[in-house]
Amino acid sequence: MRVAMIVIKTAAEIERIRQAGILAAEALREVVRAVHPGVTGLELDRIGEEYIRARGGTASFKGYRGFPASICLSFNDEVVHGIPGRRKLKPGDLVSIDVGAEVDGFHGDLAVTLPVGEVPPQLERLLAVARESLYRAIDAVRVGNRLGDVAVAVQRHAEAAGFSVVRDFAGHGIGRHLHEEPQVPNFGEPGTGPALRAGMTLAIEPMVNLGTYEVTMDDDGWTVRTKDRKPSAHFEHTVAVTENRALVLTAIPDGVV
Ligand code: MG
Q1: Per-domain residue ranges for the chain?
Q2: Is the CATH number of domain 11-248 3.30.70.920?
Q3: What tens digit of pLDDT does each residue of 157-215 get?
Q4: Coil/strand/helix, residue 1
Q5: Ligand 1 center to 161 CA (angstroms)
Q6: What phi and psi, each to the nearest 5 degrees, are found at residue 7?
Q7: How far is the CA of 174 from the centre of ligand 1 (A)?
Q8: Ligand 1 centroid vs 123 CA: distance in angstroms?
């Protein structure tokens, strides 16, 4: 369910989200270590799920609105919400890996996109810009700013590099529910939207496309794909708003995002 208001978290609740975020980040690191040509999406899904379960957590995505897997894997022109399957990773693929973990009633959520083997410089640049756009957004998270300041930080960085940002999907508030208010878009106007308040917790997730920002939905009802079938990149962290800098709740040593 989606909570219809922005829930402000206490310091203790933020710490619980951080515990979930750390587990999600560790699971993502394990999955990334297993990325190589020939591995299947199902194998990566099992690695992620077993890592989380072995440490007392639950994969947030499993069964969420009927989602059939524990992690999302999105290849090349797939933007987000791809379902892990028998497809093997192959050299030249871009793969987005999105992991959510629930621990003690709270969720953490993060994602990375990486190349399988070598990819052309243009795609390396797409990955770099998408990652940078996430950190530009995180830099804009502070009391006194509005959500539009965060959104436009992504948009400006991606568009200045000649790429586009997906408009039909957004980041989200996060806490006791995987998806809470507010929506966290990747485009917008500075000085607009809800004011950021200490205790808000947000999953910020730029989706940056090489070509058009337009997307389509596959027949599986989950997989979001670029309309022009050009590649897309996706990075995500869960953060808490504080009086000063954003606190990244999915950051770990040797993290992959
Ligand atoms: Mg998310």
Answers
A1: 11-248
A2: no
A3: 999 999 999 999 999 999 999 999 999 999 999 999 999 999 999 999 999 999 999 99
A4: coil
A5: 24
A6: -90, 120
A7: 8
A8: 23
